[in-house]
Amino acid sequence: MDQLLRQISAGAVREGLWQPGEHILVAVSGGVDSTALLHILHRLAEQEGFLLTAAHVHHGLRQASDLEAAAVRQFCGSLGIPCEYGQLDVRAHKRQTSRNTQLAARELRYRFLHETAARIGAVRIALGHHADDQAETVLMRVLRGTGPAGLAGMRMRRTEHEVDLIRPLLEVPKSELANYCVRQGLSWVEDESNQTRDYVRNALRLDVMPVLADYNPELREALCRLAEVAAQEDDLLGSQTEQHFERLVRSEKEGLSMDRAGLLSLHVALQRRLIKLILYYLSPERDSATYERVEAMRTAALDDTQTTWRTDAGEGIVFLREYDRLRWLRSNIHIASEGLEYAYEVSAVTSELVIRETDPQTIFSFDWTDAGGVKPGSRYEAVFDAQALRFPLVIRTRRPGDRMAVLGLEGTKKVQDMFVDEKIPPSQRGKLPIVCDADGKLLWIPGIRRSSHALTGLPGGAELRIRVQFA
User: Fold this and answer.
1) What is the residue-wise DSSP string for 150-213?
2) pLDDT confidence bin for 334, thresholds 50/70/90
3) What whole-number distance in Å separates Cα of residue 309 and Cα of residue 315?
4) Is the dihedral of CA 58, 64, 66, 71 positive or negative?
5) 24 HSE (CA, 13 A, CB side)
């Protein structure tokens, strides 16, 4: 075994790239990197006990694609490796999604690789990215603006859709791969599109990196070293963030939430990471968690002067600051629940009412007792003079202009103002039940205020005791 194979085998053991008996799907374009990758894995497969299948994608963008496909099939045949072939309509996908050509091609290519891996039972997809690719990736991300996670560049192993994407050549310069192919007598296809400056990566490789290399001849090694250090520190912070997520974040019907104090207790770096992790749990589109969006949510949580706040967090997620509670909700569910209205009639013989529209469900129980009974034990219990009530009672959501003659106050008070005084989150105000009589007179908002109407204490007669519980 030559030195390059020993290096790749050692890296595979260190990073856990494969195990004996596993089936690996190898993406082969026909270029020098993927040609070297397939040949190297072919040589390692027998002694390390894994199976190989190649996969080639015809993007339909260049005339040379037919020649590349034929060359890959011939190469796979010479090694006795089966080859899966896919022809993609990148132009159609580009029109449908408004993606640029590179992104449209990448989406279809990875979709084909994942579908093929699932069909043939492969648990790993091997990609031919090398050290030069890693250096270019890190530099691109620096220019675009990135954090430590972005500086980590590409990972040698990353799980995606229950399949590991592995990059066995990530620590190997492209020049070494070319030398390997020459030594082994292998031919490869040069992609002429790699010389066009229409793509940012090509322009960086052809124009920018040679200039930077004048200042640091070991530019590639420096950028790859930066990626390695950033990846290790990112893993550490990521692990800590996961622990804080388990400790602080609560799942609810509409999304995720946490106490403001929990977020404020963390270092600013962990605050940002925790917000991003919450967004990742609610949406698979990781690119939507931009720095600007994350920082806007973090700043809103820190602000002591603005106690309620709402913003679009991207990808169908709404962020709400509701006093000391922070919530991330799927916007379609949240909008539907905000517009929810209900109204139930309660007759003089009703004993129980369950309101399923609230979360959790609210259970009302109605008991008739003699006057002079036990006083209410909590704000979720109220007693009324039955003779002063007009049935049927109505339990409903709030309506514009609702006012109550609050016990202990003169005149009436807006329900909206009572919600603000009690710091009821705006997202919950449209769901809370309000007890009214047949004339529309507001009697009680459980847990908040009782009206001065139908007070008890008169001798004789009967009382209606209403209790609220939550399921």
Assistant:
1) HHT-S-SEEEETTEEEE-TTTTS-HHHHHHHHHHTT------GGGG-TTSHHHHIIIIIHHHHH
2) very low
3) 19
4) negative
5) 26
